[in-house]
Amino acid sequence: MYSKIAFKNVKKSFKDYTIYFFTLMLAVCIFYTFNSIESQKAMSELTSSGESYVEILSSGESYVEILSKVISYVSVFIAFILGSLILYANNFLVKKRNKELGIYMTLGMSKNKISKILILETIIVGILSLISGLILGLIFSQGLSILVVKLFGLKMSTYSFVISGKAMIKTVLYFGIMFLLVMIFNSFVISKYKIIDLLTVGRKTEEVKFKSNIVYLITFILCVISLVTAYKLILEVGLLGIKDKKFLISILLGVVGTFLFFFSLSGFILYIVKKNKKIYFKGLNIFIVKQINSKVNTNFISMSVICLMLFMTIGMLSTGFSFKNAIESGLKDSTPYDASANLYIDEGEKANDIQKSLEYIGVKFNKEDKVVYYDLYTDNKTISEALNNKTISEALNLNANMRSLMNYMKLSDYNKIRALDNQNAIELNKDEVLITSNYANTLEAIQNYVKNNDSIKIENKSYKIKDKKVIEENLKTDFMKDNMITVIVNDDVCDNMDLISRNVNVNFVGEGKEKREADFTNKIYSYKTTDTDYDKIGFIVGASRTEIYESNKGITTIVLFIGIYIGIVFLISSMAVLALQQLSEASDSIDRYKSLKRLGASEKDINKTIFIQTLVYFSLPVVLAFIHSVIGIKVANDFVSVYNKPDIMGSSLITAGIFMIVYIIYFYITYSGYKNIVKNKVHIK
Length: 685
Description:
Elements: H1 2-12, H2 14-35, H3 41-48, H4 63-96, H5 98-106, H6 111-152, H7 165-192, H8 195-200, H9 213-237, H10 245-275, H11 277-280, H12 285-334, E1 339-344, H13 354-360, E2 370-378, H14 383-387, H15 390-396, E3 407-410, H16 411-420, E4 432-436, H17 440-452, E5 455-458, E6 461-471, E7 486-489, E8 498-507, H18 513-527, H19 534-537, E9 539-544, H20 545-588, H21 590-598, H22 603-640, H23 649-682
Helix pairs in contact: 1-6, 2-4, 2-6, 2-7, 2-20, 2-23, 4-7, 4-20, 6-7, 9-10, 10-12, 12-20, 12-22, 12-23, 15-17, 20-23, 21-23, 22-23
């Protein structure tokens, strides 16, 4: 009997369950899709490939294992978010059916039996959403496998449809716990209800007490001050200044400003619109404004949280792909040689011979390998001091922790490096120098300096800049384009300068070169983990081109996947809460729509008020989130530009596409549901 009632209720209330069911289905789909990644064909290809990049040298774990672990940990956080969303949505459905439950009690049905019906309904909806979500997840997970292949730059030998039993069990377990909590919650809520409350809940309307316009105006001004200050501070320090107290202050002011915005918005909008009598009294605008005012005033906390979640969503999705692409596209220019190593020398320290140090730790080269040893010098002047340029000083302040001394290289060493690339040697007159640079944050400023200046001063002597141009190149293989500036000078110019590093560039040649390249980095990494005579060896840092490419692919892919995972969940959760709040308000506002109907409002006019209300309510948090995102993306791009100038157009279009699809679907379902609730309760023909 109870199962029949439950099935009948679910069928009858399917329109009410649409948002709930759709959200559950998407949640299950996303959860399964990302947790199934380790079982996909692409991951099997990665694991079985035997390539060195599968391993992270410091931990011995593969990037596949790291990605799977991180997704597993993040899924716990995601489960908490989705569980809270499901409880919130379920609360809306129970509240919407208060009268129906009150009638059950009036007919003599006990609270335990009503709880049993709700439990059965939860089980039915849960099973349906799990089945449909898993089916959808099976399809999407295959697409994710293809994305993994592209991100790791692999080719799959064959394609096969993969079902992850582990991910399926995990999904069913996590969502089973969520539905169990919903059942407990429903039983608790029903036990607290009284018949009179259930039957009269529709007559109770929330009284919105409006504060004086002065309070709203002051709050709005404080909101603007908070947000402008937050934007200013975060633009000053950027992501590189995360340890700066200004960074924390900017985050706090941004959050406070967001809450103040939605708190003051209801009264501020009402005040502005009331001033314009033509708009305020036109058609049903007075009703629409009052409705929006009431909603924002009641839900300003949840709207603030939604706005911040949408900001994080836009930020993570739009910068994720550009971050990965910028880093990987910059690797071509930052890795001109198969491998490089640097032995840094602090002021006053003994200058070790890097060739002997490498031999001591076991690094060996073949006779056919092309090996070049060279030194870098400094006159102990910073770049800003040497060039006396304010623009360069400002650019360098973006990363105050980076070494910003002027670097000098002997012409003979530079020509040896050019020979590695089969380039011709360069000659300099005694009063000439070459300037090389490719560090993104300072390159433009140095180019402008060279454009406007014919010479550069070194130890109070003027030297002409050959060809009046900057040579954009890395002089070693490294993880990023980090050549702020290296001045190529005649050998004797360096005689009175301090040696700052001894270096080696290598191009491996002949049979077994891949193994020698891997051994090169392994020896450099391993000597630091053993008892080492640093006085004899010195401190050596090195990397190979293959290692850099592969570690970057692994790390950036992990960051990108987690960003997409969290971003999509935040987007769905935000849209679902907005939708549920609107539908809940529709049930509470039935008496108001009945009054409109009695006053002669047509179906078209009533539908128009519903459309405008829904559009404005959905748009308010999106608009502020977009403004936050403009600043956030600018800060993120400044950080990424250290590696390479990012192109955010592609990732922005992808983000906009995902955002608009989810937004339109939830908006349409909400508008249709709102309209149907009003139509059925007000009996609009």
